[in-house]
UniProtKB/TrEMBL annotation:
The keyword Protease does not apply. The lineage of its organism: Bacteria, Bacillati, Bacillota, Bacilli, Bacillales. This is ABC transporter ATP-binding protein. InterPro entries: AAA+_ATPase (IPR003593), ABC_Ni/Peptide_Import (IPR050388), ABC_transporter-like_ATP-bd (IPR003439), ABC_transporter-like_CS (IPR017871), Oligopep_ABC_C (IPR013563), P-loop_NTPase (IPR027417). It comes from Lederbergia ruris. SUPFAM superfamilies: P-loop containing nucleoside triphosphate hydrolases (SSF52540).
Length: 363
């Protein structure tokens, strides 16, 4: 059978503005992160673009294995071996006097410059706080050490900053907490201590990787509130990684939906919830429990995210997509296309529909 011809759109990379707009703190373009394995090259992140503005939160959502964590680890140059940044730029506006823009992708992962950025100008909150702390030092020791490294050489001042930050994250008796070891704190308190650790150096960017998954619902709400307040107080920006679209709705200004190492939809949060176009995003939205649908079974997207080694040509979502069309979707690499101002979608069917002036309802 003759394959239908596919007209390739010009790839719409998310326009570069970091050199003109001071509010843009980070601009990631065409990021590729590969793990060379015995079975072949695992393409964990493949041509990812996004940007981050001061006081804004970018939500990154997608199922397990879609590349969210690896993409953000690349921003800190902490991708585990044998993984490496194979291509792309990670332009970051430094918080020094010149506000110089550096390309993190080109820095030596063990060099002085990335060590000054990591934990200082760009900080991370992990899902599991025990990972961030050493069990053999007190919380106070660890906070003070980070502040001495990034902010001041004066130990007294560093201690004062540590106590103030613990207060800001809602820790009761901060002086006493300084003397405690991580295992002596409850889960919620440990999470707060880790947020304090991330914020004590006034980072320009805070990366929160599933920061509330291990917490109960009440503490979850407090932690989310805290991240929002602190973003405003510290004039910083947040990258929020989660599986949970409810959390995305609450936290994000813009959202990147990732699937199989690629951004498949990128837009502002309202458009995501009221005008998502990619069949994968629509599937994720249909799987959110709602009060009105209490007695109906929840929709779920059948199958799992494949392992990104030796992938077939075409759309990565092809094998699970309700709209998949042989000869159209599985022929060439599908580009990310700007369908409306600031709304980018990686789907041939959506592009066809948009041209006809129709809407893709994902049926
Ligand atoms: N250290 C590693 N070695 C080999 N492959 C890896 C490694 N870390 C991640 N990967 C692979 O890279 C791809 C992306 O993984 P990543 O952890 O970024 O996904 P994720 O979207 O963050 O998932 P989760 O929500 O479960 O954290 C997956 O196929 C994963 O198996």
């Amino acid at each position: 059978m003759r394959k239908k011809s596919v007209v390739l759109e010009k790839k719409a990379t998310i326009a570069s503005t970091i050199h003109e707009d001071d509010e843009v703190l980070l601009e990631v373009s065409n990021l590729n992160v590969h793990f060379p394995l015995e079975e072949g090259i695992l393409e964990a992140v493949s041509g990812v673009d996004f940007k981050l503005k001061r006081k804004k939160t970018l939500g990154i959502v997608g199922e397990s294995g879609s590349g969210k964590s690896v993409a953000t680890k690349a921003i800190l140059q902490i991708v585990e071996s044998p993984g490496k940044i194979a291509d792309g730029d990670i332009l970051f506006r430094r918080d020094d006097q010149q506000k110089q823009i550096v390309n993190i992708a080109e820095l030596n992962p063990r060099g002085k410059e990335i060590r000054a950025i990591r934990g200082g100008e760009i900080a991370v909150i992990f899902q599991e706080p025990m990972k961030a702390f050493s069990p053999i030092y007190t919380i106070g020791n660890q906070l003070v050490e980070a502040i001495l490294l990034h902010i001041t050489g004066d130990e007294k001042e560093a201690k004062k900053i540590a106590i103030d930050t613990l207060k800001k994250v809602g820790m009761s008796n901060p002086e006493q907490r300084m003397e405690q070891y991580p295992h002596e704190l409850s889960g919620g308190m440990r999470q707060r201590a880790m947020i304090a650790m991330s914020l004590c150096c006034n980072p320009s960017i805070l990366i929160a990787d599933e920061p509330t998954t291990a917490l109960d619902v009440t503490v979850q709400a407090q932690v989310l509130d805290l991240i929002n307040q602190l973003k405003d107080n510290f004039n910083s920006a947040v990258i929020f990684i989660t599986h949970d679209l409810g959390v995305i709705a609450e936290m994000s200004d813009e959202v990147a939906v990732m699937y199989l190492g690629k951004v498949v939809e990128y837009t502002d949060v309202d458009t995501l919830f009221f005008g998502a176009l990619h069949p994968y995003t629509q599937g994720l939205l249909r799987s959110i429990p709602t009060v009105g649908k209490r007695d109906e079974p929840l929709d779920s997207i059948e199958g799992v995210v494949p392992i990104p080694i030796n992938l077939p040509k075409g759309c990565g979502f092809y094998s699970r997509c309700q709209l998949a069309e042989d000869g159209l979707c599985n022929v060439v690499e599908i580009p990310l296309v700007e369908v409306k101002d600031g709304h980018y979608v990686r789907c041939v069917k959506v592009n066809q529909n948009q041209k006809k002036g129709g809407q893709n309802n994902g049926e």
